[in-house]
Amino acid sequence: MKFDVLTLFPEMFEPLKVSIIGKAVQNGLLEINLINIRDFSKDKHKKVDDTPYGGGAGMVMMSEVVYDAYNSISNKEKAKVIYLSPQGKTLNQKKVVELSKEEHIILLCGHYEGIDQRVLDEIVDEEISVGDYVLTGGEIPAMILIDSVSRYIKGVLKEDSTKEESFSQDLLEYPQYTRPEVFNGKKVPEVLLSRKS
User: Fold this and answer.
1) pTM for the whole thing?
2) CB distance 131 to 100 below 8 Å
3) Is 21 inside a domain boundary?
4) Please, are residues 38 and 48 in contact by the beta-carbon 8 Å criterion?
5) pLDDT value at position 31?
6) Measured between alpha carbons, how far is 169 from 172 in angstroms, rounded to an integer?
7) Rounded CA gap, 192 and 197, in Å?
8) For the CA atoms of the chain, what is the radius of gyration?
9) DSSP 8-state secondary structure symbol assigned to residue 58
C-alpha cells in the first residue's frame, strides 16, 4: 500500500516512523511519502494562502500550489484522493476496511479556513472527517487514517489480529487481563483462569 501525503507540515508525521507502522514501512509493506505543499509555491516567501473572496476571517490555501504539489506525484491516475475535512463523511471501521483494498491513496491535508474549492473539485475523490470537532489541520486526521487502514494490510499485523477487535463485528472488545493474577487485591476473572494461556 502506498500513501502520498500532501501537507504543509511534513515534520508532524514523525510518529509514523515508530511502532507497528514504522516496522511495516521498514519491511516494505507500506510506503509513506510526504510532499511539502510549500515547496511548490512560486512566491519568494513560500506563501501558500490568501484572503478569501467574499471576506471572512482566516486564510484559504491557494489552488495552484496544491495542484502543482498533487501533479508531482507519480502514477496518481490510479490513486484514490482523499481530502481530510470536517465536511467529509465520518471515518468508521467499514470505511477503513474498504480503503485497505486500495493500492495507492493520496491524502490532502488542509489548513487555515480550508482549500480553494476549485482544486478540490479537480482532484479529490472523497472527503473524510475523523469526527465532529475542529482541528488545526489535516495532519492528525491523515495519521489516524494511515494507522487504521494499515492494520488491514496483509503482513502488518498477525493473521487473526483484526478479526476479534473492537468494531470488527459492530461491537466493542471485551476487557483484557494479564499477569499478575492479583493486582491491588483485584483478581483476574475465574473463567479466564480456567483457559490455557
Assistant:
1) 0.88
2) no
3) yes
4) yes
5) 98
6) 8
7) 9
8) 21
9) S
Any idea what the Cα angle at residue 106 is, between residues 9 and 130, rounded to 5°?
70
The mean predicted confidence, pLDDT, of the chain is 92
Q: Which residues of the chain have pLDDT under 50?
A: none
Q: How far apart are CA 156 and CA 1, in angstroms?
A: 11
Domain at 16, CATH number:
3.40.1280.10
Q: Would you say residue 187 lies in a domain?
A: no
The neighbour count for residue 171, using CB atoms within 10 Å, is: 10
Query: What range defines the domain where residue 51 resides?
Result: 2-150
Q: How many domains does the chain have?
A: 1
Amino acid at 168: S
CA distance 102 to 126: 13
In a domain, 165, yes or no: no
Is 170 a member of any domain? no
Query: Can you name the residues that pair with 133 across neighbouring β-strands?
Result: none
